[in-house]
């Protein structure tokens, strides 16, 4: 059965409602990964009808893009590829990117294309989550790349409403990537409505709250070496937040009825909002691809389920899982 698609705002590009997030698959920050499993996950996604794949220059220091490039060989036309640029060489002291002129930005995106082994990407996104002195350079560079046919559309990944509006000052921004989940409904307050009014497609990240909304973690869960989620246990402030989240997950247990898991309910929740184009749960393995795609055919959330969600996190409420 073909997966349903939604149009990514003014770009006109049709994305499947569920795409694959390929940060963890790149092999950094989320514990051990296996390239063969990551490539099989991409293969399975494609076989089951997924057309949308999200990566970035910094995921696995480029390895995520390289893996996607390998997966696309000989069948590029079956993939809608979104990638990002911004954090490589970022100057923390000056809070500005390494892309201090348009030529450098354009050359940076050419490097994305090389790692992806392709001559164009469907969507290029600024990965910088706050307005910095190089924002105009990104916009001008993305527009030049669009004119040259090297990107089909451009957008930004941020939760900062003022920055989004500045980035879209001339109406050219086609997409927003944003953290949105049952635990973080802050985007509902203003941003999602703005996106609808402006023809900006919305790509949802963090729908599983980094795995918390699958219900698989407990207070005494452990995380492998190299997994940044270890901080949820070792850092007292993060540990207190983790415990609060687990309590909320306990209150959401009613969503995971027979025939539907909590993770499926969490993914379905994000797709209820009409501003949302596609949700991109992060995956490392084929099993996770299969499990997440099952959300699209599981029992839909009903009015009781939605009331339960509102009790745990009211519309527009919750906490930003990523500060950005
Ligand atoms: N600033 C940005 O632009 C930005 C920031 C964050 C993410 N992203 C993008 O958004 C994507 C998704 O966001 P995210 O990875 O932060 O969060 P997420 O989708 O909420 O969580 C993904 C993690 O949950 C676990 N998981 C996935 N499916 C599962 C399932 N069915 N059952 C149980 N656990 C499952 C996996 O980790 P384990 O198996 O290791 O538990 C996976 O890495 C990323 O891959 C990336 O493409 C972009």
What key phrases describe this protein's structure?
single chain; 324 residues; alpha/beta; TIM Barrel; eight-stranded parallel β-sheet; two-stranded antiparallel sheet; 10 strands; binds NADP nicotinamide-adenine-dinucleotide phosphate
What does this structure look like?
By secondary structure, the protein is an alpha/beta fold. It has one domain: TIM Barrel. Helix content is 35%, strand content 14%. The protein contains 11 helices and 10 strands. It has helices spanning 35-47, 63-72, 102-116, 135-147, 161-167, 191-198, 231-234, 236-251, 262-272, 286-293, 303-312, and strands at 5-7, 14-16, 20-21, 52-54, 80-85, 121-126, 151-157, 175-179, 201-205, 276-279. The strands form 2 sheets. The chain has an 8-stranded parallel sheet. Helix 1 packs parallel to helix 10 and helix 3 crosses helix 4 (135-147). The protein starts with a strand and ends in a 12-residue tail after the last helix. Bound molecules: NADP nicotinamide-adenine-dinucleotide phosphate. The site of NADP nicotinamide-adenine-dinucleotide phosphate has 31 residues, from helix 10.
């Amino acid at each position: 059965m073909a997966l349903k698609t939604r149009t990514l705002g003014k770009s006109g590009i049709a994305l499947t409602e569920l795409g694959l997030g390929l940060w963890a698959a790149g092999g950094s920050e989320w514990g051990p990964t296996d390239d063969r499993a990551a490539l099989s996950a991409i293969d399975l996604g494609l076989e089951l009808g997924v057309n949308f794949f999200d990566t970035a220059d910094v995921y696995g220091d480029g390895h995520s893009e390289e893996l996607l490039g390998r997966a696309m060989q000989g069948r590029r036309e079956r993939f809608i590829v979104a990638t990002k640029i911004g954090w490589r060489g970022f100057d923390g002291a000056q809070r500005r990117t390494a892309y201090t002129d348009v030529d450098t930005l354009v050359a940076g995106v050419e490097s994305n294309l090389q790692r992806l082994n392709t001559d164009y990407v469907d969507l290029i996104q600024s990965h910088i989550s706050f307005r910095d002195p190089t924002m105009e350079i990104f916009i001008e560079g993305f527009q030049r790349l669009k004119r040259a046919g090297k990107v089909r559309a451009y957008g930004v990944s941020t939760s900062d409403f003022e920055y989004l509006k500045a980035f879209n000052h001339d109406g050219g921004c086609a997409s927003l990537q944003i953290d949105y989940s049952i635990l973080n409904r802050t985007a509902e307050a203003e941003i999602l409505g703005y996106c609808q009014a402006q023809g900006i497609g919305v790509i949802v990240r963090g729908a599983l709250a980094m795995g918390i909304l699958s219900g698989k973690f407990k207070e005494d869960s452990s995380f492998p070496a190299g997994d940044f989620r270890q901080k949820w246990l070792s850092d007292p402030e993060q540990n207190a937040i983790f415990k609060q989240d687990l309590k909320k997950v306990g209150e959401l247990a009613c969503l995971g009825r027979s025939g539907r898991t909590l993770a499926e309910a969490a993914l379905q929740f994000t797709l209820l909002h009409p501003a949302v184009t596609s949700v991109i749960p992060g995956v490392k393995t084929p099993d996770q691809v299969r499990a997440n795609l099952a959300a699209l055919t599981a029992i839909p959330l009903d009015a009781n389920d939605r009331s339960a969600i509102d009790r745990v996190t009211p519309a527009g409420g919750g906490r930003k899982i990523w500060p950005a």
